[in-house]
């Protein structure tokens, strides 16, 4: 990366401004409703966390560069410029107190997609050297080591060995011509290997031809979180290269919210061409297998279960009904939270917040929202489909002395799977 | 009396022409300024369409989510009050329609004046309550700029002067009518260069939001 300066930062912001951004800023009437949609405001009551306020650097650049009145103001010396001090102050607002969950984008009465603009503003923060150290570290590890948590292929291979020994299942690696390439998040490799075991079990039963890839197993994308298209592109390119090398038809995004946004929606735009393969979230795939009758489950959990919607799945990809249909396969007492689907509340740790130590205290405060929502359902078990949400919620509940099991949905399906002794032939 | 008539005639003539010219050219210029920035076509495989969901969001965003409404009902209620009040007073008051007819050659049916009168009161109360809310609410305090106060005043003046003129509450009548017209002209001149533009750009921003979400299979 080239040296970060204020000038580069402002140029990066300029480059980010497009017609939607200009329309959004032109439409804002300072009504403040976005604050009511944001857990960092509702749980702290501090008005500086009002989402639109977090965009002030981008708004200033838009006004001075792309509006007639702003150009006049600038010529007359009446314009408030973006300064280094300002960006330093805004670091907390743009990183610590925003998960890019996009709930505000769903609420804004004039239709401003605020999260879309936060993502863009972070590009300017990176270019000007104002990204938080924790997120920077994760990004550097992602580029140099291959994973934001520093997980190497050898660690994955060790986990695979364990899983294969424990379960007797085979985890295919680098199988050319497989239908599906499964990606993982570092957290799944290190903290929740049951996800990978679950996949192996389900795919064997459903006759899905699949593989892992030794050069592209990490699905998370720190570039998207920190706001660096350069880093994001490098990480997406690794997956594309791996998928193309193995000639797979589909790539499966794992139980991780932002990884899905990165590979499904930003990926092709980052590398500048459409993918020659389909990208599918694991929940979408499991629901397809369910609908096709390729997976069957037995036994219903009778304890009360609820589901936490990962923001990136519901508000970036519309994956709302799939998890509920899957929940219905395995539970008899499922209760949704009051705000669900596109209006679900964030766990408070997405968008790089959980890897940003500066945000730890604030994140725990903001978590009260999720804590209360979960409590309201009276659920005994929480299910979700994002390893990051899962860790953030585990930590949050622990902080508030609440004991509750948290389960990944894929793993739950795997636990209830009907396993035939002679699985069907691999279907194409 | 003569001087007040001259003032009225000036507001209806020269000043009106200047204001309408700035308004029309300014709005076109601003819309061009926004749309000409363009946006990159997404290369990701679409999960849904853009146009339909965009159009839907233009309408659906007029209705707030219930949970958010409960958190901040005054913003929603005052917003509805003055927008509806303004719309009715501006477009459904018979003398206004006659002015449109004289200027553009076409008109439409109006509402009985007592209804319009009630709408004007609704707008005035809504605007005053909204102002009070803007002063008292910590979030609004944080994000309000001088421009917000300016556009509030520019919106309030035409409706209050119109109300006073209609009820003959200020003498001589031509002065208050002239002030009413003048305040509308101030509104029109400032319109393209301030947040008043949201009247038009709200259709763009809602559409973009709905369309970008729609493409990803999300209802926004």
TrEMBL record, chain B:
The keyword Transit peptide does not apply. InterPro entries: NarG-like_sf. It comes from the Bacteria. The keyword Transmembrane applies. The chain crosses the membrane at residues 14-32, 74-94, 114-137, 149-166. Keywords: Membrane, Transmembrane, Transmembrane helix. This is Nitrate reductase. The lineage of its organism: Bacteria, Pseudomonadati, Pseudomonadota, Gammaproteobacteria, Chromatiales.
